[in-house]
UniProtKB/TrEMBL annotation:
Name the UniProt record assigns to this protein: UDP-N-acetylglucosamine 1-carboxyvinyltransferase
PANTHER family: UDP-N-ACETYLGLUCOSAMINE 1-CARBOXYVINYLTRANSFERASE
Source organism of the structure: Frankia canadensis
All residue ranges annotated as the Enolpyruvate transferase domain in the record: 6-408
Gene: murA
Keyword Cytoplasm: yes
Amino acid sequence: MERFVVTGGTRLVGEVAVPGAKNSVLKLMAASLLAAGRTTLTAVPDILDVTVMGDVLTGLGASVERDVEGGWIGIDVPDEPGVAADGDLVRRIRASVAVLGPLVARCGEARVALPGGDAIGSRALDIHVNGLTKLGAVVDVEAGALVARSGGRLQGASIWLDFPSVGATENLLMAGVLAKGTTVIDNAAQEPEIADLCAMLTAMGARVEGAGSSTLVIEGVESLTPVAHETVPDRIVAGTYAVGALMTGGDVMIRGGRAGHLGIVLEKLVQAGAEVDVRADGFRVVGRDRPRSIDVVTLPYPGFPTDLLPQVIALESISSGTSLITENVFDSRFVFCRELHKLGADLRTDGHHVIVRPAQRLTGARVMASDVRAGAGLVLAGLVADGVTEVTDVHHIDRGYARFVESMTALGADIRRVPDRAVA
Ligand code: UD1
């Protein structure tokens, strides 16, 4: 166990390069299962979740070669991959459920441990299960695993999602590309990472229309060919540095960041007082005065991303007025508020709302990263808190932020990684 020790009071100034998106690369890795042979992915971020997903694929019979420095990964998928994903690994990252669609489509069967022992019909995976059932799979729970069997090729169908779930859209898309006939996914999630997956699938020979829109029309094909594909830049990492620039009164060039994928986020940061300069190779964010308070409502893309919520709550805790933050995607994201409160933030949660009042100042304390984004939000708060903030459980941050300490240090932050038992 390690922790980050952050000494507040520095401005973020300089340049940071945005790595490939965690939420894309994990699904691109799963998509490699759709074709025998070697898939090569580039712009692969140096994060823990990629390692775990690589282990999931290895457990399914693939050979995974990774060059961490070079940022690429090669995945050799056998003619007949295994169909059972290792339970311990699957429980470590929810994204591993993305192997379900490709495996059942290609092998006629898939067995994936249930994250946290969910039952079919529970909120967490019901949209995936309902969609696969529409495509002709029979889905059961057996010995703590979700088992999908198709007894042959899946059959294309029209599927209307109850909610534009990112994971369900991806699973059903990957199942549909090898199904017989036409699959239509309506109320599909529109996240840029799904458009990235569509681009890779299309290059593999899939026939997908409507990438990036709420209706995906897929003409199933009999087989696909492996390809080389570059991962889309991580908009959440880019957004995190952007919020950090504003909070610290800094000046950061976010190289490789796609402003077009952060429309509402940049609009909100401008309302809060940031200067944003969009360039061909990224965008620059400058913060000058104390940020003005803004209200934020999270929604599926193109709405404000839930994965930037903790960072924005940290921003609001030092802004000049009161703000109302509403979370509409997940129901337990506010655990983070308890930790931020320890730094002196003035927060009141009520259902899926948080009211944030301006704090006189934040003061360093020991706080816990409860998830990847909460951890990033706490580091941002630590940058503007008086004294030393210790963020524990940083393995969560390592799941999604490549070389976070190094990048923050290069921007001028005073941040160190130390073993949890060592004296800071
Ligand atoms: C993905 C992202 C995550 C992001 C989220 C929303 C990855 C690895 N993770 O997660 O970082 O925060 O999108 O943008 O890409 N739901 C159901 N039934 C289902 C599926 C989902 O009720 O079958 C609910 C979930 O409980 C949640 C909401 O829908 O409340 C959103 O989930 P979803 O869009 O599926 O998120 P993930 O794909 O898990």
